Amino acid sequence: MTIHLYSYFRSSASYRVRIALNLKGQSYDTVPVHLLNNGGEQFAPAFSALNPQSLVPVMEEDGRHITQSLAMLEYLEERFPTPALLPAGLLDRAHVREISLAIACDIHPLNNLRVLRMLKQELGVSDEVKQKWIQHWVKLGFAALEQQLAASPQRGRFCFGDTPTMADCCLVPQIFNARRFEVDMTPYPTLAAIDEACGQLKAFQLAQPSAQPDAA
Predict the structure, then answer these.
(1) Residues 121 and 193 in one domain
(2) CA nearest to 109, candidates 147, 145, 141
(3) Domain at 7, CATH number
């Protein structure tokens, strides 16, 4: 069955899933959903019927839809077990998941488009204050991740060992966002080194926002 990924090229959550699909060697069709055009195509009735949250990505296979990026990564891990995105040991799997969730649940949501729109349109904050908001939460999260990963005996070239895992699928898009919003990566050498190692792999290169059919 063909996998369809409803995606926006700059969406961090979509980026995660693209990386995972590439690492798994799975082909997929991209269905662009532009989050800015016409007030946001994610709010169109046809898309809201797929995901009432009006968020990307949505992954479709065999007529079924999955609407959360981490659920998609878990699905892909179970559907296509090799190459694995999670290590074998239970505690090691929990470790990779905790890194993934720290990014996907604690850092990313505070800088999501709908949060930034609320700050700007409803609360009337300036662009400067919005930028400070973004940088504050990214720096706070990255400082904790840097400390954790720098001290981790399980870390290799990647977040866990010498092959990429679910954690790397989450980290790389968040670093892309950080750089987009002018976060200085100098205080996070471990994170930057992992990002550099990931960037040497074709699976990550093909998932980059600039490589997407809807990139603008």
Answers:
(1) yes
(2) 141
(3) 3.40.30.10
CA 88 to chain centre: 23
What digits encode the pLDDT tens for the residues 117-171? 999 999 999 999 999 999 999 999 999 999 999 999 999 999 999 999 999 999 9
Residues 107 and 180 in one domain: yes
For the chain, what is the domain count? 2
DSSP 104: I
Q: Which domain holds residue 42?
A: 3-83
114 assigned to some structural domain: yes
At 169-201, the pLDDT tens digits run 999 999 999 999 999 999 999 999 999 999 999
CB atoms within 10 A of CB 135: 16
Indicate if 100 and 75 belong to the same structural domain: no
Instruction: Kindly state the average pLDDT of the residues 27-33.
Output: 97
Indicate yes or no: pTM above 0.90.
yes
Provide the sign of the torsion angle of the four alpha carbons 167, 75, 108, 197, taken in this order. Answer: positive
Single out the residue of 59, 16, 4 nearest to residue 166, CA to CA: 16
